[in-house]
Design a protein that fits this description.
Helix content: 25-40%
Number of strands: 9
Low-confidence stretches: 1-7, 53-58, 97-101
Amino acid sequence: MGAGAEPDGSSRSDEEWERFLRESVAGTADAPKEPSARAREVARRLRTEPDRSPDGWRSPPPERPKRRVGWYVVGLLAVLALLFVALAPGRVVDLVTGSGASHSDAQRPTVQDPFRGSPAATWANGAAGITMPKEAARAVGWMSAAEVERALARSRDFLVASSLDRGVLRGERPEKAIALINPHQKDVQHLLKTAFRTPGEKNDPLLLFSRFQPSRAHLVGDVVKTKGALTYREGERGALQVTADVTFVYPVARTGGDDDILRTIIRRELVLSWDDPDKVLTEPGTFSITSYKYDMTNGGCGTPTGYFVPPFGPDREADESGREVDPYDRDAPFGRDGSSEDECGRATRS
């Protein structure tokens, strides 16, 4: 007979079979001694899953809840990605292209673009970067407003003749600049007479003039970048005192060498006194130099030669042994005035 069928041929209901099999598993006295194949299968399941309800084995398993990533997490990741691109675009290019040195190479100066990668790239050229006072000139001490305006213009002329003139930058004697200095100022005239013949710590032409030795280095291109200003006030004995604070950036290369380009950076502060001829011995159209000082990076260290000596190749490591300085920080104090304690600075950027 078939499994689950009565001797008379009728069949039991599923509920009756389940009850019958549970009693068989529990050892009920009237359980059949030879259960059918279906009974044995169900009994095995009941032994392994004793707590399931009779209908449980027919029901499909419940679905597991799906986890969802919150939109705020997606938004945060997007913001971080955009921030990374904004702060390090060069690094993103390197990651995409696989080139680690491309960003560094892109910042190196070239003959066609000697200010590439430099803060000075956006500065004005030459005399245009030396700004005059914004307000109209006013009378000061013994000078009228018109005379003050002329004195300011001649003060800027001195900066051009001493630090921007192409001949002077090639090592020539700065005759135009010297002609503007009071010939009766003994200490400065002594400096001028000795500095070009026998330069030293206290008598160095670089204290007032920018010069490169043609046999060692030459300017790249026709542009020198500048940033600075002239200010004025009344000085001693009613004189007009003009202060110039200007940074000059010179791109240079080794003469007869490769295309290795350095930028020599000089910041100068000059205080000029346009004296009253009734009180101070002077000549018309000239000024006395009250003070002078400068800071230099990438211009050479060691014994003064009367020229800037850019450190090319292996000389660079020895030249950059001094304190770290940012030559573009125009708020920092400075002062190289010819004393033996002066040391070269190592530029953090050029």
